[in-house]
Design brief:
By secondary structure, this protein is an alpha+beta fold. It is 48% helix and 23% strand. The protein has five helices and seven strands, in the order ααααββββαβββ. It has a seven-stranded antiparallel β-sheet. β2 and β3 form a beta hairpin. α1 packs across α3. The longest helix is centred in the N-terminal third of the chain and has 56 residues. About 7% of the residues have low confidence.
Amino acid sequence: MMRETHRLYKILFYVFSCFVMLYSSSIKAQNKNEKILKKVTKYFGELEKEGIQACIHNEPEVAKAIKQGKYEKKYDIFMDGCNESVSHYGLFETDTKHLLTTLYNNKDSDFIIINMINPKDRSTLISKSTFTFSRKKNEKELYIINNHYEYNEEKKKYELIKDSSISNFNVEEKMKLIEDYLYYKKENSISDKSRNKPYSGSYYVVARINGKFLIKEVLDYSSEN
């Protein structure tokens, strides 16, 4: 009887220990994911602020009026335009966080998320369409989020459409170039350093490379997208 009781205690202790380890691991992973999400929010928030400041700086007369507290109506209209001109950073943040909390939540696999201005954007709006694509390392499936504006004839206004269309953009080729550059350090048209020549595109990358999280802008020096 004593032997069976001792054996039962050992089993219960083992089960309890496993539960504590799993719970602790889950809490650590959750805290790590929350830190990453906060970094993403901060990164795109800072880009948004920089964009608004640049918008104001490009119109010195309006900037002067803002400082002097004049032309309140004109100021509001102008600031609405500045906010619209950087609204794509909000889409980058939203789509990146969506992927992090669904596809890559508490996962250890390496991945790359790429945000860019939609190369096929044809709208006349100040707001820019965006294109986000992503996949895990050594996998073939690409995840695509395409944000574009379409005019609604009934409502007489543009509406944001979110789907997974590609719009004739060679996403597989671009993904491969970025993967080669970030994962394997292969020199190609992608670079996070200036090459003192015009670049055709800018990508905002959020990734896990060799288990380490990174977030940075890389430039595309190919002749076209």
